[in-house]
Specification:
CATH architecture of the largest domain: Clam
Number of helices: 4
Structural class: mainly beta
Shape: globular
CATH superfamily of the largest domain: Lipoprotein localisation LolA/LolB/LppX
CATH topology of the largest domain: outer membrane lipoprotein receptor (LolB), chain A
Number of domains: 2
Largest sheet: 12 strands, mixed
Number of strands: 21
Radius of gyration: 20 Å
Distance between the termini: 23 Å
């Protein structure tokens, strides 16, 4: 399940670390190699850091703790001000503590899908993004390589990353729209890389007394092409933006609901869009279905009604992309 409970966690993780165990300074390397080294460090090391997250004129401080121990990944992402929300993951189990809603949501996600990391750059990705090293500069008293990941069309966002020369860790990241304007920015204030992190570091500080607990034990989306659970219709997109393809689907019951929801995942290898399909509730007399558009931070959402079902597309992509995909989702008989 991919719900917009804390949409900045994926983007925020890109900026992890401005100190790290030393790695010998690299000679000239391809920009894609810097991204690969950065992603490996973010997903395989232990770290505990705080960072500022800016978007829409609002700044929030957050803390990330990440540990790999005996092959199991544990993570805790917490808002230090603002909402006070926390997200704690151990293996495939993710608990979302939402004090502003007095709710805890427990769901399953693929064990390999971390709260941090950067998608691998493939030949497919390179066809739709221009990846370059555009300069070198000093940041936080360290030498950095400025890597840009620029979209070649209007269907995706881009990144600017300041990657440390000696550690291959990002010191700063920016998410940019198709015109190069900054949508979100992350800057780490501090980070340590301890060899051991105790279990106590992953215990939430949120008091859950009187909270509502919602559980979704449905497995994460299967690979595209798998059969949907129940029903007589399979949902897919008749057309997609260039480079996007469906990579997963599942039928699941969302927390707090008894109705099954179909979940489709579309990606170009870097950007991803989740589509949720659920039966449309009966409209009041004289009321017509209305398409809805929303933007939260860097995430866009678009909802419409097709064949008596509500189609909602959500992703860290431009509004036109979620609209394109949602309006192309149709039902097909098995």
């Amino acid at each position: 399940m991919s719900r917009p409970t804390f949409r900045n966690e994926h983007f925020a993780a890109l900026a992890l670390a401005w100190t790290a165990t030393g790695v010998a300074p690299a000679e000239e390397q391809a920009p894609t190699h810097w991204l690969e080294r950065m992603n490996q460090a973010l997903t395989t090391r232990n770290y505990d850091g705080t960072f500022s997250h800016w978007h829409g004129g609002h700044v929030e401080m957050l803390r990330i703790i990440h540990r790999v121990q005996d092959g199991t990944v544990s993570e805790r992402l917490a808002s230090l001000d603002g909402s006070g929300r926390e997200f704690v993951r151990t293996g495939a189990s993710l608990s979302c503590y939402l004090p502003d809603k007095r709710t805890v949501v427990v769901e399953q996600r693929p064990p390999e899908k971390s709260l941090v990391g950067f998608p691998a750059v493939t030949d497919q990705t390179a066809s739709f993004y221009d990846i370059r090293e555009v300069g070198r500069t000093r940041l936080n008293r360290r030498d950095t390589h400025i890597i840009t990941v620029s979209p070649k069309d209007e269907y995706r966002y881009g990144y600017r990353l300041w990657i440390d020369d000696s550690t291959a860790m990002p010191l700063k990241t920016q998410l940019c729209d198709t015109h190069g304007h900054v949508i979100e920015q992350i800057v780490f204030a501090s980070l340590t890389l301890p060899s051991r992190i105790p279990d106590s570091a992953f215990r939430t500080e949120v008091s859950t007394e009187g909270f509502q607990w919602l559980r979704n034990e449905t497995p994460p989306p299967a690979q595209a092409g798998g059969t949907m659970a129940g029903g007589t219709m399979a949902w897919s997109a008749t057309r997609l933006p260039p480079g996007f393809k469906m990579t997963g689907r599942s039928a699941q019951t969302l927390p707090g609901s008894t109705d099954p929801v179909d979940h489709l995942v579309f990606t170009d290898g870097l950007a991803s869009v989740s589509v949720f399909v659920e039966p449309q509730r009966a409209a009041k007399a004289g009321e017509s279905p209305v398409a809805e558009t929303a933007e939260v931070g860097s995430s866009s959402a678009f909802s419409t009604v097709v064949d008596g079902h509500k189609i909602t597309a959500v992703g860290e992509v431009p509004p036109d992309t979620v609209r394109f995909i949602a309006t192309q989702v149709k039902a097909h008989g098995k």
